[in-house]
Structures are given as structure tokens and as C-alpha cells.
Design a protein that fits this description.
With 280 residues, this protein is α/β, with parallel strands linked by helices. 45% of the residues lie in helices and 18% in strands. It has helices at 41-47, 73-86, 99-110, 130-154, 156-159, 162-167, 169-180, 184-196, 223-232, 247-250, 252-264, 275-279; strands at residues 3-9, 12-19, 26-30, 52-56, 92-97, 115-121, 210-215, 237-241.
Amino acid sequence: MTDIRILKTRNGVFRIALDGIADAPVLVLSNSLGTTLELWDRQAQTLSRTYRVLRYDTRGHGQSVVTPGPYSFSQLGGDVLAILDALRIERARFCGLSMGGHIGLWLAIHAAARFVGIAVCNSAAKIGTEQGWQERAGLIQKGGVAAMRKLADSAPDRWFTPAFINAEPQVVHIAQQWLAHIDPEGYAANCEALGASDLRPKLGQIRVPLLLLAGEFDPVTTVDDAKAMQHAIVGAKLATVAASHLSNLEAPQAFEAALTCFLDGLPAEALRTAHSDFQH
């Protein structure tokens, strides 16, 4: 049974979900921009057979803290560390998609000692352009809830292939509803974080085992983006799946197979946690 709770941390309150055996190795799943922890429902069910799966609503999303923007990736990455500390988790595995993948890159650069391995999915060291993100943030700040709904209406073409949109309208609709109900201030503040962040100069510092997973049909963060990161990061592994941007929804079996292969190849170690924190 999924344990969903509001967790108090030094960085504010975050809605989290825990699945799996309390003393299993911890795997953190981090969302894309405009989605909630429900993005990972299927993966949580599958991966919790082996791992203690920890999901969370990113700052500005869902029921997590919404603070004035702009945000930064030192703040968003720091939120992950604050959640781990609040649960007394010393080390974990990490998988992030899109913005969550960019958070993973930041953690690989700045907090590698806390992670056994990191999967960066449908992401890039520089996502989009600063001007584009600033323009989107401005539209949302001006238009509020109505602008979020309009953005949700146009999201499927960025997130999924036309074939998947036609075949799985219910999945597409659910994803649109996540986006439509994100707090406008929180969404805009995350857009500003994406506009300001460029991790390309620091990729060479990464030494933690890393998987780069790309969608073959992703127009947002391309296979070429993943190959560029692989070229810059010593030992990084690359996998592709036949999907667009939200590849864990569009090609869940292939996504889980690639992620599991990477996770299974990481060093096996006992991760000390405070079990009581998970079970209360």
C-alpha cells in the first residue's frame, strides 16, 4: 500500500509517497515540470518489488510548498537532500525525468556522495532557451489559472507522439489535468529556474554512475542532447526508447527495462535508514 504524507523538512513541506519494503534500497523518482508524483504510479508499483520507492511533488507543484520565485536548481536539488535528511536516508538511487532529470544532473555535480547512481531521463544539461522560459513564465504570471489550462490544452504535442495520443486518450487527459491544476506561481518560478540553469560547463565533474535515457521522438530534449551529455560525462550510459517526452508513460515497459538494467548494475550496499520514519 502506498504511504502518502505531507513531510516537514528544513526547506518547507513536501507531499511524498513511499512504496515497497521499508528496509529496501531507496530509489527517488523526480517529476517533470507540470506533473505531480502520480506521474510515476506505474513505475512505483513495478520498482517497489525491489526498492523503497520515494516520490515527491516538486516545489511549486501539487501539495508541496509554493514559495515566491524565481526558483533555482540549487534550491530544487537542495529540496531532494532535505527530504532525504528528514527521512534519515543517507544514500539513495535517483531517477528524474525532464526537469527532474536536470535536478539529477545538479545532484550528480554537487551532492554525488549521497547517491549510488543517477538516471537522467528525457532531459538535457541546458533545456530550451532562457528567453523561451522567461516568455512562458511571463504568460503564466499574467494569465494565472486560465493560462495554465490553455498550456495544458497544448501539452500533448510536446509530451507524446501522435500515435500515442490517438491510442491512449485517457492517459493523455490525466497528464493534462496534472498540468492544468499546478499553481501558476509555482509553475512560473520553475520555468525561471530552467531558463537560468546551464550545467554544460560542469558535466565533466560528474563521477557518479549515470544513465542517460532518451526518447527517440522527443522534440523537447532530444537523443542528440543525451549523446552530447554522454560525450562529456566519463562512463555515462545511454539508452533510448521509442517514445516522446514523457517516455515513462508512453513506453513504460521499455523505460522500466532500461532503468532496471542500470539499477541492477549499481554496487549493492546496505543503505542505513531509520525504518520508523517510513512506517509511521
